[in-house]
Amino acid sequence: MKQKLGRWLIPVVGGLAFVYLLVPIAYIFAFSFNDAGRTNLEWRGFTWDNWANPCGAPAVCESLANSIQVGVVATVFATALGTCIAIGLVRYRFRFRNLTDVLIILPLATPEVVLGASLLAQFLNLGWELGYGTIVISHVVFCMSFVIVTVRARVSSLDPRLEEAAADLYASPRTTFWKVTFPLLIPGIVAAALLSFAMSFDDFIITNFNSGNYQTFPKFIYVAATRGIPAQANVIGSSMFLLALIVVIIGQVMAHRKRKALEQAQ
């Protein structure tokens, strides 16, 4: 009896949790077709106009472009710096290495409110004007720890015999890195970059502290939520969800084909 109950309980609970996670996404997708007037709080009828003109709401596309720009720049810097630090932590032994590990984990463990307020105080003490530059710096500080943790796991999993084999074939350290090590690190670096971009694009708390008058997409959504998020913003959110879903499906299909090809080769 207990085995039968457990056999049914886990799928039911898992299914309910999955539905619970999808309800907000379904709401956003449904209200992207709402024939909203000044507010988007009530269903007023079905229309394709919002998808035909996603920039119809004031400042929605401008804030989206700002978030994409900040996310790309922050991702480039965070990925480059984080990858170098991850390689250094795995491959080299130096003084205060344990302290460095603690400093890397701190941004992950620190609440965003505390981190955002601390960065704000630092910028004000330096006399810097809040805006695009302070947002990018804040996001690099915030995202770099995620990059380090992700890439570090990839570096630790590399087989050192591959680099030793390259050295036996008279490859210089630079050639070994670019021809052997770096290609093997690319999956981890790409995963870290995607995670960094997602964290940067989605961030509101740290951005709200350090953005000044510069408006990003999360800030636009927060301000617009009081009168109902514009249907055009729902269109953009739905499009990004569908795009991410397509990317995941393509990745899974490619991985499945690769595994199948390896099995056939064996």
Provide a compact summary of the structure.
With 266 residues, this protein is mainly α. The chain has 11 helices and no strands.
N→C terminal distance = 44 Å
Structural class: mainly alpha
- Strand residue content: under 5%
Helix count from the secondary structure assignment: 11
Task: Name the average pLDDT.
Answer: 85
- The CATH architecture of the largest domain is Orthogonal Bundle
- Could you state the CATH homologous superfamily of the largest domain? MetI-like
Q: Give the radius of gyration.
A: 23 Å
Gross morphology: globular
Number of strands: 0
**Helix-strand pattern, N to C?**
HHHHHHHHHHH
The name of the CATH topology of the largest domain is MetI-like fold
Helix-residue proportion: over 70%
User: For the record, what CATH class of the largest domain applies?
Assistant: Mainly Alpha
What distinguishing features does this structure have?
single chain, mainly alpha, 78% helix, MetI-like fold
Describe what you observe in this structure.
- This protein is mainly alpha-helical and 266 residues long.
- The protein folds into two domains: 163 residues, MetI-like (MetI-like fold, Orthogonal Bundle), CATH 1.10.3720; 31 residues.
- 78% of the residues lie in helices and 0% in strands.
- α3 packs antiparallel against α8 and α3 packs across α10.
- The model has no long low-confidence stretch (mean pLDDT 85).
Chart the SSEs and their pairings.
Layout: H1 2-31, H2 49-52, H3 60-91, H4 97-109, H5 112-126, H6 132-156, H7 160-168, H8 173-202, H9 205-210, H10 217-224, H11 231-265
Helix pairs in contact: 1-11, 3-6, 3-8, 3-10, 4-6, 6-8, 7-8
